[in-house]
User: Fold these one by one.
Assistant:
Number 1:
Amino acid sequence: MRRGFLYLVAIMDWHTRKVLAWRISNTLEADFCVEALSEAIARFGPPEIMNNDQGSQFTSLAWTDRLRRSGMRISMDGKGRSLDNIFIERLWRSLKYECVYLHAWDTGSEAKTGVGKWVEFYNRKRPHSALGGKPPAVVYWLRNEKTKPDQQGQKVT
């Protein structure tokens, strides 16, 4: 059986490395990226700044319009600026070596299920050295608990 390519996008909180939303597609159209972005915004609110690379999905009108409508500033990696997206590149490396390379999925839906299980593990259970050995979701929720508005609408720090 000839296997096709699958493309993955993830929306990540840079501070905690938590994957907020992700999608798999068998095309490089922007739609699946915008769907993941919209889910992340709906579930967690818009970030102040969105950093992404210069792939066609992220320079498309659909993507940039969604960012602008949410009030986000857009930051795109510059040529030769490998450190701009180092956190997401590290996520891809971990996903490949800890999940993708260990399985021989026959269908896109099998890949989606396998990646979904790994993302849940990554977010909720996988210790992260940059986070003091805690998983990203734990640090994300602890961080947000500290900045919740109190009854008067003031942020508690």
Number 2:
Amino acid sequence: MMNNMNQAVLLIIIANVLVSMKGFNDYSFLDKYKFQVSRILNGEKIRALTSGFLHVDWLHLGFNMYALYLFGDIVAKILGTPDFLIIYFGSLLFGSLYSLQYHKNEPYYSAVGASGAVSGIVYSSILLYPGMELYLFFIPIPIPGYIFGVGYLLYSIYGMKKQLGNIGHSAHLGGAIGGFAATLLLEPSIFTTNKILVIALGIPIVLLLFFGDKLKNI
């Protein structure tokens, strides 16, 4: 199956693996390029991009890259490589921007992971291929793609509230928003062909945009 994978998807997976491995073995490298609010606000804006290629451990890396493997090829094959790259990096950066806004009063907040970019790709693939079904882990029945997408988003909200680990949970939400918006801009026909799905996926995003800050007070 790897032979049939879009080359851009494969190269991004390889880049994530190599950069993350460097971070696993070199804390100074990880510290220099991870997402950290105070450093970004003080001018180190490159961290908003580089943090998306670093991961906490092999499990974190493996989960994100497996999701990218499953969903990235769908986006690349339907929209083409240039649009896939726009959605991937747009989601990554939007995820970082959302994290920066959400944690703006926490100067030492830091995180790593491709979660924002992958969330954007997951949402994009669901919009483009709403009939997809997934077999996950030991679940013997297929799960509709949109159920996976909403579940991924809910997990992100839980992670934001609990601030689990050094993983960019707020970037999951920002990335989903970025991927959702970018896909609709690049393929506006979805508004008419899958209007109900657009509304269904858009409602939790709109609610979180307006009420997301209240998560900190719950």
